[in-house]
Design goal:
heterodimer; A: 239 residues; alpha+beta; T-fold; eight-stranded antiparallel beta sheet; two-stranded antiparallel sheet; 6 helices; 10 strands; B: 148 residues; Sufe protein. Chain: A; four-stranded antiparallel beta sheet; 26% helix; disordered N terminus
Chain lengths: 239, 148
């Protein structure tokens, strides 16, 4: 068995990491292409860069028709998710154009897809704590929001995506779009599913809901909520 | 999709993935004890001879990685292929604030890195805090240890 290939890249204001357990002759070049693509996505979508297309679009300096086709495509997907989540997912949190809640998960899943296309069926991609795996088993720790650096639970799975939203590291930063106030119902919320893009967006949306667990149960999504008092609650489908 | 849960209570963080670090390139003969001598620092103990899979205790120093606050460099002590210690040999200390941050952050990063390895976790969801310089220097040390 060949040794896994790993790569770590600082991009989009966080760390992306890659582990390919079945590297082949195309792996290195594919990782290089993925990393270039991640930096390109950051250039387009970063709200921290005043010159990014999303910043210029938000300020009304650039029409959508002049933007990269990815920008319009992402905003369309965001609109679909807004409808699906009763408005709890939004590309304009706090009234400002910012589809970051979609972009990071999408970038991670796209990277995993590129690895699959290059022939890898056994890899793990993480972007700032949101994880897409292929093959397995992978052991994925879920960060404990009450003990920095500690893990609350470990989920083991194949072809699994795991997304977590929480207040531990960045404080209350997810706004309830219906009240405009930071969501503080939960300390953290973790969702499991096959595809990270949708999962990540649903995690952000559900985190802002006053009662996320019933909504997630209705939608049959495996979820683990950690409450501010430390107790755990999960939907029936969470393993 | 096959899933199972193992409940655990272990310490880990965003640097976790690094700890399953193996060589960047596939290397069929890459028993970790075959790491080249130039990868090790002067203070390293020699790998035990004749063992195909495990070496003795040795140390490998990562590259000094420049961050906006200054260079960060770590030194890894390995026992065979297991990390037994991570020392930070260089970190930003330009002013009091740097020193305060690092006196808190670096022991924490070390603790996270060490326990993550013990917990045998591949990756952590929900941990976004990480030190770019620390992870990159650690990666370069482990790359060297793995024989590159």
């Amino acid at each position: 068995m060949t040794a896994p290939v790993t790569h770590v890249e600082h991009v989009m204001g966080t760390v992306f990491s890659f582990t390919v357990r079945d590297p082949g002759p195309r792996t290195a070049a594919t990782l290089e292409r993925i990393v270039t693509r991640l930096h390109r996505i950051d250039e387009l979508f970063s709200t921290y860069r005043p010159e990014s297309e999303i910043s210029r679009l938000g300020r009304g300096e650039l029409p959508l028709t002049a933007c990269d086709p990815d920008v319009g495509w992402v905003l369309d997907r965001c609109a679909e998710l807004t409808a699906e989540t009763d408005g709890y997912f939004t590309a304009t949190p706090g009234g400002r154009l910012d589809p970051s809640g979609y972009v990071k998960g999408w970038a991670v899943e796209e990277a995993s897809r590129a690895l699959r296309d290059s022939g890898s069926g056994h890899h793990c991609v993480s972007g700032g704590g949101d994880v897409q795996t292929a093959g397995g088993p992978w052991r994925i720790g879920i960060a404990d929001p009450h003990r920095p650096g500690a893990v609350a639970r470990v989920v083991t799975g194949h072809d699994l995506a795991v997304a977590t939203s929480g207040t531990a590291e960045r404080g209350p930063h997810i706004l309830d779009p219906h009240t405009g106030r930071p969501a503080t119902t939960l300390a953290s919320l973790t969702l499991l599913g096959p595809h990270l893009t949708r999962l990540d967006a649903l995690t952000t949306a559900a985190f802002a809901m006053p009662t996320p667990l019933p909504w997630l149960t209705t939608h049959n999504i495996p979820a683990l909520a950690i409450h501010p008092d430390g107790h755990h609650e999960h939907t029936p489908t969470f393993p | 999709m096959r899933r199972a849960v193992i409940t655990a209570s272990a310490t880990a963080a965003g640097v976790v993935l690094l700890l399953s670090l193996k060589p960047h390139e596939p290397s069929r003969t890459a028993a970790i004890s075959s790491a080249p001598a130039e990868a090790a620092t002067g203070s390293s103990a020699p790998p035990s001879a004749g063992s195909g899979t495990a070496g003795g205790t040795r140390t490998v120093t990562g590259s000094a990685v420049n961050t906006r606050y200054g260079p960060v460099q770590v030194k890894v002590t390995l026992n065979g292929s297991t990390i037994s210690k991570i020392d930070v040999v260089q970190y930003p200390t330009r002013d009091r604030r740097d020193r305060e941050i690092n006196s808190y952050a670096i022991p924490q990063l070390n603790q996270e890195a060490m326990t993550a390895q013990n917990a045998d976790i591949d990756v952590v969801s929900g941990a976004t805090y990480t030190s770019d310089g620390y992870t990159r220097s650690l990666q370069s040390a482990l790359d060297q240890a793995a024989g590159r």
